[in-house]
Design goal:
Layout (H helix, E strand, L loop, with lengths): L4 H11 L10 H11 L5 H10 L6 H14 L1 H9 L3 H17 L14 H12 L5 H12 L9 H11 L3 H8 L6 E2 L2 E2 H12 L1 H8 L9
Antiparallel strand pairs: 1-2
Helix pairs in contact: 1-3, 2-3, 2-4, 4-5, 4-6, 5-6, 6-7, 6-8, 8-9, 9-10, 10-11
């Protein structure tokens, strides 16, 4: 039944029928639907959103998360928040690695690498996510403590996140770790000077009089 497009659609209708009650073999079904087609995730996502099965198998969860990452970064991010605390950070870091490496987060997906344009667009989505304090810490640790050579432009991503959230002084610190004066068409030295000019006297005062956060007004 799963040998052609018509068969898949028919099978999906049967598998997601309300009369079935609690879905059977949901992990296996979802996993194989993801693996079946490397160019279209419509069917596995339709199955998941229709049946909404509880996923107990890590392979099935990883396969589904790969789908979500490919389709929409924000959707993948908010999905990670619905998972148990023990999995949230793992999935969040997989999301970061997917965007920066341009490849599936696991070897379960048959999709090819992202194009540079796709990766750039998803990177913009990534740095604009509404992160909690914990998630922001995970983000920073993932990008500053990694030794993974596949995570291209990790420090650049960190810099842009800090700029985007108004943390300009921290952005200057991130710039110090960059190895390139110019990368991907962006001249980081010019950007640094622009930030310093924008901070103006405030930066000088902050450097001279570090804020003591332990003091109360």
């Amino acid at each position: 039944m799963l040998t052609n497009a018509y068969g898949v659609q028919t099978a999906l209708e049967y598998l997601s029928h309300p009369s079935l009650g609690i879905p059977t073999f949901a992990d296996e079904i979802l996993f194989h639907l993801v693996r079946r087609d490397k160019s279209d995730f419509t069917v596995p996502l339709a199955y998941y959103h229709t049946v909404n099965p509880p996923l107990t198998n890590r392979n099935a969860l990883d396969a589904l998360f790969d789908c979500l990452c490919w389709v929409n970064i924000s959707e993948a991010f908010f999905f990670s928040r619905t998972q148990p605390e023990t999995l949230r950070r793992y999935l969040f870091e997989q999301l970061i690695k997917f965007v920066l490496s341009g490849t599936p987060t696991t070897h379960l997906s048959r999709r090819k690498e992202l194009t540079e344009i796709q990766r750039a667009n998803k990177a913009v989505e990534l740095i604009n996510l509404p992160l909690t304090e914990d998630e922001n810490q995970w983000f920073e640790e993932c990008l500053t403590e990694t030794n993974d050579n596949t995570l291209r432009d990790a420090k650049d991503t960190l810099l842009m996140r800090r700029i985007g959230t108004g943390r300009f002084k921290e952005a200057l610190q991130a710039k110090d770790g960059l190895d390139h004066g110019k990368l991907d068409g962006i001249n980081w030295e010019s950007l640094r000077l622009g930030i310093e000019k924008g901070l103006g006297p405030r930066k000088i005062l902050e450097d001279m009089l570090p804020i003591n956060h332990s003091e109360k007004d």
